[in-house]
Write a structure and sequence with these properties.
The complex is a heterotrimer of chains A (about 280), B (about 240) and C (about 250). Chain B is about 20% helix and about 35% strand. Chain B has 4 helices and 17 strands. Chain B is flat, with a radius of gyration of 21 Å. With about 250 residues, chain C is an alpha+beta fold. Chain C has one domain: GHMP Kinase, N-terminal domain (Ribosomal Protein S5, domain 2, 2-Layer Sandwich). Chain C starts with 9 loop residues before the first strand and ends in a 13-residue tail after the last helix. The chains are: A alpha+beta (about 280), B alpha+beta (about 240), C alpha+beta (about 250). The interface of B and C includes residues 133 and 220 of B.
Chain lengths: ~280, ~240, ~250
């Protein structure tokens, strides 16, 4: 184990002493989030992309599109896959190599929010080119670039913002050969609303929204909830070995529902800003 | 002997600083022979230091290299039978033996070493031995050396520590006097801040970050004094 | 390298992106962009976007790799899955292993590794957007990341590819020129000493063309070196004041 992974007893104690006084290290309220910046369309080679700076955390998500066969049980539906890499660029504690359980869990939590909210309607006619044979396949790849805590929410936002500016080619079918031809001209990816993730952690008996790195390291339990712009809860994930009471979960869901409204707005603002324009990618 | 840079000039690795014989070198530089002539180059980004026939570079970036006598803030990462492994940042890992912590005889069969110090504990220790071939040896026996149980731990660039301490401790004294806070500084770039108010701790951290990013400038002590005065006035409003 | 020499890559003596034969694409670089890394660099070169993080010198895990007389350098050059036309699988491919190896060897030359026995210097490079010439750009970014981490070094390494397009030697191949041109020759040097630390080529060149290519590469590397220098100093010259010796700790 790298020495950076060991949470110092001082670090934990300092946090809990503060929490007992009703304070957080960066002076935020317990349910207050950090500042967020979304820079859409940062990757030239991707069909959709976004970089998110969430507090000190930096995440980039890119969407690649291709055409391929559907799953046999959903012959008319598009396919979406979400991958996430805890790149060693982003933290001294992340090792290179194939994604471990932490990265896979995060990818699946992000995936679940997008999938279950149906914000990208896989059944939309545009997603299917030849029923049973050819559909649009979307790969959403997320790279953590700087770990400043709360990677799930930052990743989910980057993925959502990347999908919001993804474009797919118009397709023509050659009438003789029945082969599809991808045209140069592109359409926006079908999208119905948006979904965001909200993560709460527990340190001692305190519940905090949007953990900073120090808080993320000291947490005993984590709870992430995915909420769509219509207010529906689409995914939940309780993590770590600590536990929550029913009352705590209910409080979290109440707080999350109101915070989700603000966050879902940010996505629409970013996709609006993005129309036809390449943004400067800068740190 | 020709000196090719001016005092305090910003230099980057590979930049030539001087040519000819009879030049003494300090840190942050290396010698190379070119056409039978000795040349001195910078090996790190920093400020050229020129004094008579002596040339060196005060680095602006760099890891912590232990020196015997240094006070460091370490983190216990492993507990052995009669010693601890201590993270002191940088490429070297410290060793702390139980006889350098407690005066009495330690009986590894009956005494539990974890009750003295355990994984995650933060200590203010001194480097008592180091020669680059073996791990640095630490001690907790000495005035002011102890386990640290309170305060906010922050990390800064180890090469900026001399600036944060200041000439004869002037900068750190200024910080302490103006905030009534306790501040423990480790040469390895770790600092523990402990004040009555969270806002004061935040202010001290911001002041330290300011010293870090302006370490290569002059008149810093005065600017930090003005900064603290202004921020304290705003806090009171 | 494709055999397709029919593709028009030059029009009226200019390249498809409007560049002169010896002209570089726009390049910008910034150091210290990452919070958690000891040193870092973000580099844009044409449409290439490359992020490099440096850690160390630090303790080596696993320990059995440690060298008792020197630090080791570990470089990982990776393409992000979305950085290329067809999505790349997340697992590193043979090309990425090869480039990691030659970049490691290039960096080995400039580092004073004997100062840090048993340690490691880890360099992670991710190409977020690829547009031709990524290995030279990656090496250029890596040497800035190392300098930003304060790791003692003999000098900066700077890379630039030259190549052959319609029988002409051109500087800084674009993605299209790399794919449809007649040859690609990546070069990296320690500009101050003229030492070549990386040299490859694929395609067909005459010995004269190689000589011309090296000369042009060195000129281009000189320009890029000046950008590296400015990027490294930018962090400090923004707070430009002279350092008063009286205040400095001895």
């Amino acid at each position: 184990m790298r020495s950076e992974e060991i949470v110092g007893s001082l670090e934990r104690r300092y946090l809990t002493d503060l929490l007992q006084k009703g304070k957080r290290i960066d002076n935020r309220g317990f349910f207050e989030g950090r500042s967020i910046q979304i820079i859409p369309n940062v990757i030239h080679k991707a069909e959709g992309s976004a970089m998110v700076k969430w507090g000190n955390t930096v995440v980039v998500a890119g969407v690649k599109t291709s055409v391929g066969p559907p799953f046999p049980d959903t012959p008319n539906q598009g396919v979406i896959t979400v991958n996430l890499e805890l790149s060693p660029i982003s933290s001294p504690t992340f090792e290179s190599g194939p994604p471990g359980p932490d990265a896979i869990e995060m990818a699946r939590v992000v995936d679940r929010g997008i999938r279950e909210s149906h914000v990208i309607p896989m059944m939309h006619p545009q997603m299917c080119i030849i029923p049973g044979k050819l559909v649009w396949i979307l790969f959403v790849d997320i790279y953590i670039l700087d770990d400043g805590g709360n990677l799930i929410d930052a990743s989910a936002l980057a993925a959502m913002a990347a999908l919001a500016n993804t474009r797919i080619n118009k397709v023509k079918i050659n009438e003789e050969t029945e082969e599809p031809i991808l045209l140069e001209e592109m359409d926006p990816l079908p999208r119905e609303g948006s979904v965001v993730s909200l993560t709460y952690v527990k340190i001692d008996d305190f519940i905090l929204y949007d953990p900073s790195l120090a808080e993320d390291r000291a947490k005993i339990a984590r709870f992430s909830v995915g909420i769509a712009d219509d207010g529906m809860i689409c995914s939940m994930q309780k993590g770590e070995s600590g536990v929550f009471s029913e009352e705590e979960i209910i409080t979290i869901l109440e707080k999350a529902t109101s915070r989700a409204k603000e966050l879902n707005k940010i996505i629409d603002e970013s996709s609006f800003l993005n129309e036809g324009e390449m943004f400067q990618f800068d740190f | 002997m020709r000196i090719l840079v001016s005092k305090n000039q910003l230099v980057i690795p590979g930049e030539i600083l001087a040519q000819g014989s009879g030049i003494k070198v300090g840190g942050g530089v290396f010698r190379a022979k070119k056409n039978n002539e000795t040349e001195i180059y910078a090996s790190m980004i920093g400020l050229a230091q020129v004094r008579k026939n002596r040339i060196g570079v005060v680095p602006l970036e760099g890891c912590y290299i232990p020196l015997e006598g240094d006070i460091v803030i370490g983190k216990i990462t492993r507990v052995g039978i009669t010693s601890w492994t201590v993270d002191i940042r940088g490429p070297y890992v410290g060793t702390l033996r139980v006889n350098n912590v407690v005066d009495r005889d330690f009986d590894s069969m009956n005494d539990d070493i974890n009750r003295i110090l355990t994984v995650g504990d933060i200590i203010k220790a001194q480097i008592t031995f180091f020669d680059r071939t073996r791990d640095p040896v630490l001690s907790l026996q000495g005035r002011g050396l102890h386990k640290i149980i309170n305060g906010r731990l922050i990390e800064v660039d180890p090469v900026k520590i001399p600036r944060i301490i200041g000439k004869k401790g002037s900068m750190i004294q200024l910080l302490k006097n103006m905030t009534n806070a306790q501040i423990i500084v480790g040469q390895n770039g770790r600092i523990v801040i402990s004040a009555q108010e969270l806002l004061i701790e935040n202010l001290i951290e911001l002041a330290i970050r300011k010293i870090e990013s302006e370490a290569h400038t002059s008149g810093l002590t005065d600017r930090i004094r003005d900064y603290l005065e202004e921020e304290k006035r705003l806090l009171l409003e | 390298m494709s055999e397709n020499k029919n593709a028009t890559l030059l029009e009226n003596g200019l390249r498809l992106d409007g560049r002169d034969l010896h002209e570089l694409r726009p390049i910008s670089m910034k150091t210290g962009v990452l919070d958690r890394a000891d040193g870092s660099c973000y580099l844009k070169w044409g449409n290439n976007k490359i992020l490099c993080a440096v850690y160390g010198p630090r303790e080596l895990h696993p320990k059995h790799l440690a060298q008792p007389d020197r630090a080791i350098v570990r470089v990982e050059y990776r393409l992000a899955t979305f950085s290329v036309n067809e999505r790349k699988s997340p697992a590193p491919r043979r090309r990425e292993y090869e480039l990691s190896k030659i970049i490691t060897e290039s960096l080995n030359h400039i580092l004073f590794l004997e100062k840090f026995p048993n340690g490691t210097i880890d360099v992670f490079i991710t190409v977020l957007d690829a547009d031709g010439g990524t290995r030279c750009a990656a090496l250029t970014a890596a040497s800035l990341g190392l300098a930003d981490a304060g790791i003692p070094m003999k000098g900066l390494v700077t890379g630039c590819a030259v190549g052959k397009v319609e029988d002409k030697i051109v500087v800084d191949l674009s993605d299209v020129e790399d794919k449809d041109g007649q040859g690609d020759m990546p070069v990296a040097m320690v500009y101050n000493t003229g030492e070549i630390t990386l040299l490859q080529c694929d395609g067909k060149f005459t010995a004269e063309e190689i000589t011309e290519g090296l000369k042009l590469a060195k000129e281009a590397i000189g320009k890029i070196y000046q950008m590296q220098r400015r990027a490294l100093l930018a962090k400090y010259s923004q707070i430009a004041e002279s350092y008063d010796e009286d205040e400095e700790e001895e």
